[in-house]
Amino acid sequence: MYFFRSSGQYLGFIIDTTIFSWNGQYLGWIEDEYVWDKQGQFTGELKEIDNHFYILKNSYALPPIPKAPRLNPLSVISVPAPQANIPPITLKIGWKDGF
Fold it and tell me: What is the pLDDT of residues 17-29, one digit of tens each?
């Protein structure tokens, strides 16, 4: 699964519940639609809009309590071919990109 910024820029990919940048750098993980960076800080929510995935954060909502940091659980990954950028989307008031 691939994810993008609201600008349409390709950001990275998700394998199982682990999030990677476009070049294979470990970024964090997903738990029940909530996204955490590798230091355990809340980054946003995984949202599907028009068949594309985004990690978005509501700047008006209180974030969940941070979690313990996690190391990359996958020892070796194959980086998929980069995806083309997509058209930008307009976010609702208060929402912003998580990464």
Answer: 999 999 999 999 9
Predicted TM-score of the model (pTM):
0.90
Q: How confident is the model at residue 75 (pLDDT cuts 50, 70, 90)?
A: low
Q: Using CA atoms, how far apart are residues 57 and 68, in angstroms rounded to an integer?
A: 20
Instruction: Report yes or no: 95 and 58 within 8 Å, Cβ to Cβ.
Output: yes
Contact 43, 33 (CB under 8 A): no
> Which residues are CB-contacts of 93 (< 8 A; sequence separation ≥ 6)?
none
The C-alpha atoms of residue 3 and residue 26 are separated, in whole angstroms, by 14
Do residues 9 and 88 make contact, with C-beta atoms less than 8 angstroms apart? no
